[in-house]
What we know:
- This protein has helices at about 5-30, 40-65, 75-85, 95-115, 120-140.
- The protein is mainly α.
- The mean pLDDT is about 95.
Amino acid sequence: MHTVLQLLAFWALAFITLGAALLLLNIFFSLIGNDLQLRSLGEEAGIAGVASLVEAASAWLFISFVPTAARGMIIPAMVVALIYKLAHLEDWSRFDVLMLLTFQVVIGCIGVSLLFCHFQTAAVTLVGFAFVLAIIAGIARTF
């Protein structure tokens, strides 16, 4: 596959998972009575576009040149967290940014599991994440 097409595919996947993570995080926060302050749809799409480009370029670099260095993806995750923290400086706490990245990772893991027909892994990941979210919701409702 051509290099540009690979980068565009990674960018599209990162943008889709980040957008889905924002949507699901907003729904989750609405359910627990917390308010996730989001900007307009265009501004959020722009922020997600830049953040997903950072993720895509980093993933492409690691997969193309250093395929055994998956631990290096923590640096782009930190850059994405910084982008979102700076974009929502007054509105979001560190917990909100951490939850966004957690949602994106879980969505990505479930998507990859389904893509490679590992349905049991996807189901276990989904149930485990739902269990963790239920615990977080229980704790959040007590405060």
